[in-house]
Structure formats: structure tokens, C-alpha cells
């Protein structure tokens, strides 16, 4: 995805936080300064990974070609941090959150400081402090120092698009904040277990408390909708040849969709895509006698934990509700495949 707005930068960073298993994500934005920060309590990075994180095509999410066909993370191309280093001033603070070897550092009061990166490899990661790395526009680490932070990662981008003025849109600060809020809402319904906060500077403007499904999340930001107006349904889809075919097509479309833009060649024929046998579909619907909207703005489709535009599916949902919703009113419906 091209990073062409603060909202797009926020989306990339937040997806990294989710890939790192974060359950608490705080997004702070200073639109006038073209500055943004995403802080999470995810796995963090050791010094070695941190120093490499913004170099071109650097990813920890795939190691072999075969991994391409069982991707379970939102990112895998290793482009976001590198692009952000090119587009602004990038600083990352990180402290590994691997609890396995907590005693390692506890018992080493006299640990060399900074420890050599080989000490931080493998599992020996629960460093007592984290690291702060500043990158240049080529994505190379140019400043490295220890930093006292909680386990997790804090990414800050300053002066975004400073050298790319055409990407500095003429949107007002309020419009930018709305677009960020809307992106976070779409991500939040696909990741209901996360505690989300959005701040403009230090002023809180949006907060989502976690729940077990999207049913608990939607009422927090769709005005006029209460949890009791919604129904949640989880359907297991049997592994029939049709489902397998449809699933293959979906995986293929996603992979091809994300690779075509970057001119990569897909090395394996589509017939080799394998999707797991157990598939399910989650559905959150507003009971049509209790909630309906003036616009179809909350008819959403999610695939593999990302909201996507799917005009066919959206149309199918709208047609299905055409008779039950009052005239010229639209349902609240989120389908997650
Ligand atoms: N918030 C984060 N927590 C832990 N690791 C991160 C975080 N953000 C980035 N990383 C590390 O930096 C690498 C590069 O990130 P990115 O450029 O977005 O590429 P990708 O997400 O495609 O791997 C990731 O593979 C991951 O190892
Ligand atoms: Mg990423």
C-alpha cells in the first residue's frame, strides 16, 4: 500500500503492532506538525532486529518462499518502516517482551551496557531496558542508545512528507483525524480484543475498550446502536470442494492483489494454494426492527482480519435486508470471513 496520508501511515504502524501481538495500542497524532506516534505492548524487538527494521525489504514475518503461502500476519513485505524512513524522520523505541528469560537480566546487574547484540539473540531477550534507534532516509540506523521504556514498541514519525510536498493534502486537521478514526474503527472491528486509543496531541479523542467479538465493539462507535440491538453469529463452513475453491480464489486474489502492485512474480501456481479445512464466518447484524441507517455506511466485509471493499458481497447483504429494513434505510452488518 502506498503511504499517501497520515491515516495510511497510522494503518501501517497499527498493523505492525497487531502482528506483534499487541493488546493495547495508543495512536497519537499532531496533524499540523505532520507527526504521528504509535505505541504498543507487543513483542517488541531485540537490538539486532531494531537496527534492521527500516532497511529495504526487511521483514521478520517470512523466512522462506514457502512461508508466502501460509501468511498469518497482516504485513510481510518489509516495506512500511523503510517507506516511513524515506518519507519523514523515523525513530523507534523498543523493548522485547519475551517473558521466558526474565531472570537473565534480573540476575545480571553488572551486564555490559550496551550488551552485544549476540546476547540479545534467540530467547535471551528480556532486556531490562529498551533501545532507541533513529534512522536516516535510507533506513539505516544512525543513532542507537538505551531507553527506559515498558516492554513493547513506540514508533514516531516526524515531518511526514517534508520532502514530498505533493503528498501533503489540503485536508484540515479535523478531516485528517476523522479519516484516522475511521481507519481505526475498521481495524478495531476485526481485532476486538485490543484496547485502542486515539489522541490528537495529548488530548484523547477516541477510545475502544476490548470485547470478545465485533458485537461488543460496534456500539462503541456506531451512534444509536446498543449491544442489545445486535446479533452475533458464528457459522462453521464445512470443507466442501466449492468452499475450497472459493477460499482458494480469495487467497489468490489477496496475494495477487498485493503482489501485482509491487511487480513481484508469483512463483507457485494458484492450484497449490492451500486453505485450512476448518473455515468459519462471523456475522454481526443489527436487528432490522431496532437499528437501520440513512446510508449503507456500516455494511462491511472483513477477510482475514482486514476490512475490504467487496461490492458483490455488500450488494448481497443489502438485497437480503431490502425487505426487512424500512424503505430507504440500510442495515448495520459486518461479515467476517
Ligand atoms: N510494533 C512492532 N513491534 C514489533 N516488531 C515490529 C513492529 N513494527 C515493526 N516491527 C518489525 O519490523 C519489521 C519491518 O516492519 P515493516 O516494514 O512494517 O514490514 P512487515 O510488516 O511487512 O514485516 C517487521 O517484520 C517486524 O519484525
Ligand atoms: Mg508492516
Automatic annotation (TrEMBL):
Which InterPro entries did the record assign?
Answer: DNA_mismatch_repair_CS, DNA_mismatch_S5_2-like, HATPase_C_sf, MutL/Mlh/Pms-like, Ribosomal_Su5_D2-typ_SF, Ribsml_uS5_D2-typ_fold_subgr
The highest taxon in the source lineage is Bacteria
Which is one Gene Ontology cellular component term of this protein?
Answer: mismatch repair complex
GO BP: mismatch repair
A Pfam short name = DNA_mis_repair
Is DNA damage set as a keyword in this record? yes
Q: What is the lineage of its organism?
A: Bacteria, Bacillati, Cyanobacteriota, Cyanophyceae, Oscillatoriophycideae
**PANTHER family, per database record:** DNA MISMATCH REPAIR PROTEIN MLH, PMS, MUTL, DNA MISMATCH REPAIR PROTEIN MLH1
Q: Keywords on this record? A: DNA damage
**Domain (DNA mismatch repair protein S5) ranges:** 279-337
Q: What is this protein called?
A: DNA mismatch repair protein MutL
Q: What family does this chain come from, according to its entry?
A: Belongs to the DNA mismatch repair MutL/HexB family.
GO MF, one example: mismatched DNA binding
